[in-house]
Amino acid sequence: MILEAILSSLNEDETPNFAPIGVRTEEGGVYPLTEFEIHLYPGSHTYENLKRTGEGVVNFSDDLMAFVDSALYSKPLALVPSEKLLTPRMAQVQAFWEFTVRDFDDTREPARLRGQIIHAQHRGNFSGFCRAHGAILEALIAATRLQWLTPEELREKWPLWQEIVIKTGGSKERTALAKIKSYLQERKFMVAEQLE
Ligand SMILES: Cc1cc2nc3c(=O)[nH]c(=O)nc-3n(C[C@H](O)[C@H](O)[C@H](O)COP(=O)(O)O)c2cc1C
Fold first, then answer.
1. Where in this chain does the record put each DUF447 domain (predicted)?
2. pLDDT average, residue stretch 2-9
3. Residue-by-residue DSSP string for 11-54
């Protein structure tokens, strides 16, 4: 599954850099893992920094404005020192993973980076933003509003929701979407092939 996090890394002048990045994990969400993968497009500070320094922090935050500010405005975010790395982490996050780069394969685009988690902390029950959750909510809302939707409208939107869930969700998210699909099929609102 892919969780959307804010990655901190160190610029060449030793200032911190923050950027949202999708972190590919097994089913465990933000909870203790040893490894993860990220896909990095060339041209970002994050790409250069991780390649050069071999370390970074995955910060799991529910602060949407921090995502917008770091993605579009390079705004510095409140930070605190890491436990094990030179790279600082974000202050007030629900969870973080300090990691070292185990493998950086830049022969592919996007590059594949494997991170080895060397120190992690988790607070509360936040399990990380996942795009599949938004897609499931949209599909579910549509399923409760069938009286106002035409089958064509639903057919048009379904492939995008399905693609997001398949790409970013885990088994729980795929099961949730399958249940919505069964509901729609039982009501003969859409036939099976239309939802493929
Ligand atoms: C939710 C979200 C997830 C993103 N995931 C990735 C990703 O997995 N890989 C990537 O290369 N860029 C990803 N991006 C784009 C980078 O965050 C964006 O290019 C950013 O401006 C890079 O900043 P930097 O130059 O400071 O590293 C994502 C953006 C958002 C908003």
1. 4-121, 131-181
2. 97
3. -TTS-EEEEEEEEE--TTTTS--SEEEEEE-TTSHHHHHHHHH-
Which tokens sit at 168? 């970013």
Ligand 1 nearest atom to the CA of residue 131, by list position: 1
| Pocket lining: 20 vs ligand 1, CB cutoff 6 Å | yes
Mean pLDDT of the chain: 93
CATH number at residue 155: 1.20.58
Q: Which of 101, 122, 143 is the last residue of a domain?
A: 122
Residue to mutate (ligand 1; options 17, 46, 51, 114; most atoms within 8 A of CB): 46
Atom number, ligand 1, closest to the C-alpha of residue 44: 25
Number of independent structural domains in the chain = 2
Picking from 122, 142, 157, the residue at the C-terminal end of a domain is 122
- pTM value is 0.93
What spacing in Å lies between the alpha carbon of 44 and ligand 1's midpoint? 8
